[in-house]
Automatic annotation (TrEMBL), chains A, B:
This is LacI family transcriptional regulator. Gene3D superfamilies: 3.40.50.2300, lambda repressor-like DNA-binding domains. GO terms for molecular function: DNA-binding transcription factor activity; transcription cis-regulatory region binding. It comes from Eisenbergiella tayi. Residues 4-58 form the HTH lacI-type domain. The keyword Glycoprotein does not apply. InterPro entries: HTH_LacI (IPR000843), LacI/GalR-like_sensor (IPR046335), Lambda_DNA-bd_dom_sf (IPR010982), Peripla_BP_I (IPR028082). Keywords: DNA-binding, Transcription, Transcription regulation. The keyword Membrane does not apply.
Length: 343, 343
């Protein structure tokens, strides 16, 4: 006896194969009466859907991609772990891809969407500035989690975002250092061409100085060297060595990541100087190391647990039709520890 | 006109559908004459293989899974990055899954193999002790990278392994501390029931003490508390606090990871003591932080770059039939830095 195929069922019902597939897979986008007719026909003819193909499709569709810029930052290791736990709890699988700093995250995402059948995407870290036209090609919901983004680049209804306000948090730390009596504050910033969270935090630094009537001294703005991994301990170390060698006067360093703050401290120790006696050093992110370093590090703590959990929750709400896209700002917390002092 | 299907082609050729599929997909496991006959038939009838299904299958087969135990250890973040870069260079995609300490990595792997069509698996970290019977179910080649494993549990021809000799490296550090004049050496070890790399490093510690005629004092062997993340800074901190509170005399601490060594230092600082003046502290792994912490940390550096690169290279050699399974031991390097001193 010839085996009944899905095409036979489609012919019997006078519908397309894709409609039969939608009926079998409980797809929401099908008329209930049509679905009933198809399922009755299937039962009558004893058609057994091709299980392997169906499973493949189902499990592939139950996959969330996480695209990460800056994996070596321990801040993201924490976020990834939380996101993975949440995705697993929902019985979905997770594909992770690291995006190099010279790669376009949407191109990487489009490639992944082509390869895998994804349900949604979470972008983690970096900066987002893409045309709506390009983003529409993704066809699936995506969430920007701790990603800086251009306020006017994309239509708000087409994506969700969850992050701190990087400009405001950069302002918060600089304002704090100034109130501690510092006026010569060096900043360890991103690369000169950066248009990302690094730039936003730097803008906050500049605005705080101006608000306190302090001139922005461009020679105290240090940019990451191109040849060194960005936001690494090594980059903080190299920038601080160069700054000290330059003979510029300063009393505090604001590093745009905790890892760079650690590199800055090491450079200061090597000169036989002390933190915070000779120089105050502050970081950004609030990684675990801040409470274990010697001295403990003053920093802006990002609420990584909340942001990561909420990112997954929102994505699943959108997938289930329970929510539209949303934009949430989480406040950072200034953690005063041993590495900064009042002048 | 009815569209020609793969089943029609199979019927015309008097072969199974899977044989037609093998012909279309250039599978090696097909008689060349049969393949020619099938391809001729396909051309004659103008059959167009279902591209989406074919692409799905192809790309799914070009995927390597990396299963990681202990993602929060920065040691693995480095290894993952190197492995991912190498896999991308080979134009394969990578699926990453973290294995919880209470999960069975082979069960997780079997689940992934069922979901995705994987070409191979790299297990990263943890400890391996499974029956050959269970491992045979994986059906695809796998590599144990920086994984401890039971020497007699599995047949050597069925898997590859690349790692340091954890027992030997545990011996190396303990022997070094003894030669520096320390005889009361506390060790921050894994959980009491651990049968993993933690146990092997601990065995090296015990053997070194015995070789130097020093009695093993069980009260100086600290085990990770169950309720705290293993190998974390916090676990090192908690164990060291407890040790100091106990009033036990010791002059050195050997922590089985650099992260735990950092936690140990913090606990010592909080007692108003100094490292290395009051206590010498040594770690294990050789993460970047060792050269940036204050003081810089004496440690055993694992050659993570070499191990990760070789792991991927070997897997692709095996997939291409260029190599059988291999077992490679990489020597660790003792990095003498500021956190230890001669008594």
């Amino acid at each position: 006896m010839e085996e009944i195929t899905i095409k036979d069922i489609a012919r019997f019902c006078n519908v397309g194969v894709s409609t039969v597939s939608r009926a079998i897979n409980n797809h929401p986008d099908i008329n209930p009466e049509t679905k009933k007719m198809i399922m009755d026909t299937i039962r009558r003819h004893g058609y057994i859907p091709n299980n392997s193909a169906r499973n493949l499709k189902r499990t592939d569709g139950k996959c969330i991609a996480v695209l990460v810029k800056g994996i070596t930052n321990p801040f993201f290791a924490d976020a990834i772990q939380i996101i993975e736990d949440e995705i697993k709890r929902k019985k979905y699988s997770m594909v992770i891809r690291h995006v190099e700093s010279n790669e376009d995250e949407v191109d990487v995402a489009l490639e992944l969407v082509k390869e895998k059948r994804l349900a949604g995407i979470i972008f983690l870290g970096g900066y987002f500035s893409h045309s709506d036209e390009k983003l529409r090609k993704l066809h699936i919901p995506f969430i920007l989690s701790t990603v800086g983004c251009a306020p006017d680049g994309m239509h708000h209804d087409n994506y969700s975002s969850l992050s701190v306000d990087d400009e405001k948090e950069g302002y918060r730390m600089t304002d704090y250092l100034i109130r501690q009596g510092h006026t010569r504050i060096a900043i360890l910033a991103a690369r000169p061409n950066d248009a990302s969270i690094g730039k936003m935090r730097l803008n906050g630094y500049k605005r705080a100085l101006k608000d306190h009537g302090i001139r922005v001294d461009e020679t105290l703005i240090c940019h990451m060297p191109e040849e060194i991994k960005s936001y690494s301990m090594e980059s903080g170390y190299v920038m601080t060595r160069k700054l000290m060698d330059s003979g510029k006067e300063f009393t505090a360093i604001f590093a745009l990541s905790d890892t760079m703050a650690v590199g800055a401290c090491r450079a200061i120790f090597e000169e036989g100087k002390n933190v915070p006696r000779d120089y105050s050093v502050a970081g950004f992110d609030g990684i675990e190391l801040c409470s274990y370093y010697n001295p403990t590090l003053t920093t802006i703590r990002q609420p990584v647990q909340d942001i990561a959990e909420e990112s997954v929750k929102l994505l699943f709400d959108i997938l289930a039709g329970r929510s539209g896209h949303q934009h949430k700002i989480f406040p950072g917390v200034l953690l005063e520890q041993e590495s900064t002092r009042k002048l």
